[in-house]
Amino acid sequence: MNTTIKPGLQPQQQPVQVRSKDSGASGAASVQNTSPVLPSDDSVQLTDSAKALSAASVGDSIDTNRVDQIRARVTDGTYKPDSQAIASKLLAMEGQIGGHA
């Protein structure tokens, strides 16, 4: 994904002027040598992680029925987590964070 940003002036904004310092004895800034600041084209590239976060934020990411089922099993003492699956997913997330995905 590539997004191009093209800045523009709002109707109420005045152009920005760059002032150079006068080398005279007064040390005040001179207004004689001014030039307008020209807008430039900027671009932003989103990483795969940013794209995944954006996609995840669109839908319902929490299954409340599943959460309630697991909560009940934890309360009953019948919940048995799969340590291998948890470790595998933690390693996969670590790889994504470190940029090795």
Characterization of the model:
- The protein is an alpha+beta fold and 101 residues long.
- The protein is built from three helices and four strands.
- It is elongated and about 80 Å long.
- The model has no long low-confidence stretch (mean pLDDT 77).
- The relative contact order is 0.12.
- The strands form two sheets. Strands 1-4 form a two-stranded antiparallel sheet. It has a two-stranded antiparallel ribbon with strand order 2-3.
- It has one domain.
- 39% of the residues lie in helices and 12% in strands.
- Belongs to the FlgM family.
- Keywords: Bacterial flagellum biogenesis, Repressor, Transcription, Transcription regulation.
| Percent in strands | 5-15%
Which whole number gives the mean pLDDT? 77
Succession of helices and strands:
EEEEHHH
Which ranges are low-confidence, i.e. pLDDT below 50, for 5 or more consecutive residues? none
Strand order within the widest sheet? 1-4
Radius of gyration: 28 Å
Termini separation (Å)? 18 Å
Number of domains: 1
Task: Outline the biggest β-sheet.
Answer: 2 strands, antiparallel
Tally of individual helices? 3
**Could you give the count of β-strands?**
4
Shape: elongated
Structural class estimated from helices and strands = alpha+beta
- Please bin the fraction of helical residues: 25-40%
